[in-house]
Design goal:
The structure holds 2 protein chains of 2 kinds. By secondary structure, chain A is mainly alpha-helical. Chain A has 25 helices and 5 strands. Chain A starts with 6 loop residues before the first helix and ends in an 8-residue tail after the last strand. Classes of the chains: A mainly alpha, B mainly alpha. Chains A and B meet through helix 6, helix 7, helix 9 and helix 12 of A and helix 2, helix 3 and helix 4 of B.
């Protein structure tokens, strides 16, 4: 006689059906994404309704799965894996070429390393931190690929899958409550809108950063007494610690067990793990300018707070970092010392460049930027609530609180091209996500009501909706059509090495070839003297209102600073028009007008044109030497 | 050696053999990128993590990837800075590390298995 399925089995089956249905809704909608129809809200403006239904179904199913009486971790893992593919895989499936201009540049650096077998630190700063590019060059060559760009297409999905392991490990080190762990994981992946997971050194070194913290939090923090069942990062161990003993006692923070203690391992295993950490950090130091600072800062915070059993590690890390900076980056630092040192402590400048300057461009883009700021503030606000609820229950995880705040002092060091707050948001994300989840599940006993599940579901759906706009809000600019890629390839065929190659805006899929063989310039987003029309800022430039003859004269002047016989080319494209529409500084329609003016001028010749690209050659009027 | 360890060792050694075949002997060129990416990103780290055996599966997985990437970067970087850039040589070194660490892991695992009556 057949046994009837239990209610739990039925619920598990329902969740499996929901995942499959969400996947089918998503998968069948991909062909309906019309990328050329995107407006300045980005890809969210062209995603079909069934795709949104698929996202909502997956999200609701995940939140309900958190309520299962015996929490099925594999089921939650399948939800997260599906979410990573569905949320981050859309561009890889619907776009014909790798997105984001810098992706092509990174591939070009790796191709340069592959071709020359060397790193020339005089070319630019990337060559002073070449670890990622050496790795990519190595893989590209032994894999028999012709260009590193062939590895770039699925980078966001691959990097997010790589990040999943250490993020889960970090959260599991902090709590026995699997609802807290997996909601934290979910919040991590629906708040990762900062777009640092493309084919880049920072994506790889963020993985290294997460792995290092995961290993240290699991095996090298907290108590050394295995009989102590209190968690590694709980207030109780703070009370027992020699430093800062008074504050937790004054706040009556002594708590019960909330987290797994450090894993018991043999000394041999710990030595192996520590050597692994040092090796991984060493490679990160050689691969990225910023991430190792975040790693050292986080480890130092743990050590200073007496949370750490390998107190010498931050010193060793600092020595490794200092050695690399002192010996391997001299070419870069000697040329930029004034610029870099001038930003130290300039908090106002950092906030201005990271927040105020970004709220510009078209009205839709300004909405996207404000939404990003709101998403960060909501997550940090929820994290504060979670920390407060843990504190009330005497279960505050102080180590994780410190790690959530540890990246913020980076603001005092650098503006990092106006991106430092984005990077800080990413570095703090695992820990902010942990505390945001703790806002709903501060203890194992709490958060079991339907109201909590409803609140979690509403939050997850709202954040996911905002995430899709925030993450893909620049997609009109980041997306490259096959015609644009063909246009750039044609440029390298037409222009001889040594030529000057110019663009109107930053978004061009170039430099994949001939990285150091050409001179590159662009007309916007440059220092004042290099702009198309000199002005106090980009915003004042208004090519759309300048007479055609002025446009021609200005472009010719900017492109004419080449030696006799040296070619000078301007490439214009769909994504550059999108860039100027979305970010400014020129008014809408200015670039097409410039194209018409140049095409009508005898100073320029159109040497290539397709649907999305035009290449103009500057006619050299100088008489040839006798 | 326990059954999972035997399977793991067999997979690592087979991967090392496969990557050598597709890269140096030109066998199945269509599979070369996939085999190389699999080997470089997973196998050296897996062989070394096999020596350490951290108990947490999530961390084991993370360390496998991170160590593989770190070793590949370190070895190819050392060759480059020594003025002897050679991806083939770097791959041979990684194959050697994988085979050596797999063998050492097997040697370490055997006596412990016997002592435990396995």
């Amino acid at each position: 006689m057949r046994e009837h399925a239990s209610p739990l089995q039925l619920r598990l089956a329902a969740h499996c059906v929901a995942i499959v249905a969400a996947y089918v809704l998503w998968g069948t909608s991909l062909s309906g994404v019309e990328l050329r129809e995107m407006n300045d809200f980005g890809m969210a403006s062209v995603l079909p309704v069934p795709m949104y239904l698929g996202f909502a179904l997956l999200s609701i199913s995940f939140c309900l799965a958190l309520r299962l009486p015996r929490l099925a971790e594999p089921l939650l893992l399948v939800h997260v894996l599906a979410a990573i593919v569905m949320f981050y895989g859309i561009p890889s499936l619907v776009e014909e070429a790798p997105r984001i201009g810098v992706t092509w540049r990174h591939a070009g650096i790796a191709n340069h390393v592959m071709a020359t077998g060397a790193v020339d630190t005089t070319i630019d700063a990337y060559f002073s931190w070449p670890g990622f590019f050496i790795l990519v060059a190595f893989i590209t060559e032994v894999a028999g690929l012709s260009s590193a760009i062939e590895l770039a297409g699925w980078a966001p999905v691959v990097f997010n899958l790589m990040w999943l392991g250490p993020v889960v490990a970090i959260l599991r080190s902090a709590s026995h409550d699997h609802r807290l762990v997996w909601l934290g994981v979910w919040l991590f992946f629906i708040n990762n809108w900062v777009n640092q997971d493309y084919f880049s050194p920072q994506a790889l070194t963020f993985f290294a950063h997460l792995v290092i913290l995961a290993v240290l939090l699991r095996w090298f923090t907290g108590r050394s007494d295995p009989s102590d069942r209190t968690g590694g990062g709980t207030v109780k161990t703070w009370v027992r610690s020699r430093r800062l003993p008074a504050l937790p006692q004054r706040l009556r923070l002594a708590g019960r067990t909330v987290a797994p203690g450090p894993a018991d391992t043999s000394p041999g295993v710990r030595v192996g793990l520590m050597l692994s950490v040092i090796l991984i950090f060493g490679v990160a130091v050689a691969s990225h300018q910023l991430t190792p600072f975040a790693t050292v800062g986080s480890v130092a915070v743990l050590a200073l707070a007496d949370r750490f059993r390998a107190r010498g590690l931050p010193v060793l890390m600092f020595l490794l970092l200092g050695s690399w900076l002192s010996y391997m980056t001299l070419d870069y630092l000697s040329g930029h010392f004034e610029q870099l040192s001038g930003q130290v402590g300039a908090l106002g400048q950092t906030v201005n460049s990271s927040v105020n300057n970004r709220v510009s461009g078209s009205a839709e883009h300004q909405f996207v930027v404000k939404l990003r700021i709101a998403l960060a503030l909501v997550l940090w606000g929820l994290a504060a609530i979670g920390a407060a609820r843990q504190l009330r229950q005497r279960r505050l995880n102080l180590s994780y609180g410190l790690l959530a705040l540890a990246p913020f002092p980076l603001m005092l060091l650098q503006t990092y091209g106006g991106e430092i707050l984005l990077r800080i948001a990413l570095f703090s994300l695992p820990f902010m996500a942990f505390f945001a989840a703790a806002a709903f599940y501060p203890t194992v006993a709490q958060g079991r009501s339907r109201a909590t599940t409803a609140a979690v579901t509403v939050l997850a759906l709202s954040v996911l909706g905002a995430f899709l706009i925030a993450r893909y809000g620049n997609e009109r600019v980041d997306y490259y059509t096959p015609e644009e890629v063909a246009g750039v390839r044609a440029l390298y065929t037409i222009a001889r090495p040594g030529s000057q190659l110019a663009s109107a805006a930053a978004s061009v899929p170039w430099r994949e070839r001939g990285y150091s063989s050409y001179q590159y310039k662009r007309f916007t987003g440059q220092p004042k003297k290099k702009q198309l029309v000199e002005s106090d800022s980009d915003i004042d430039v208004d090519v759309g209102r300048v007479p055609d003859r002025v446009i021609v004269a200005e472009v010719a002047a900017r492109m004419g600073d080449v030696k006799r016989g040296q070619g000078s080319y301007l490439i214009t494209s769909r994504s550059q028009k999108a860039y100027l529409d979305v970010f400014g500084p020129w008014q809408r329609g200015a670039l097409p007008r410039m194209e018409r003016a140049l095409a009508a001028s005898p100073r320029f010749r159109v040497v290539f044109a397709n649907r999305d690209t035009k290449i103009f050659s500057l006619v050299d009027r100088r008489r040839p030497r006798r | 050696m326990s059954r999972p360890r035997e399977v793991e060792a067999a997979v690592l050694l087979a991967s090392a053999g496969a990557v050598a075949l597709v890269t140096f002997a030109g066998v199945l060129p269509a599979l070369r990128p996939a085999v190389v990416v699999w080997f470089v990103l997973v196998c050296p780290g897996a062989a070394i993590v096999g020596l350490v055996r951290p108990p947490d599966p999530w961390l084991r997985l993370s360390l496998i990837l991170a160590l593989s990437i770190a070793l590949a970067t370190l070895i190819s970087g050392l060759l480059l800075y020594a003025g002897a850039w050679s991806p083939d040589t770097a791959l041979v070194v990684l194959i050697g590390i994988t085979v050596a660490a797999t063998a050492a892991s097997g040697a370490l695992g055997r006596p412990r298995g016997r002592a435990a009556g396995k």
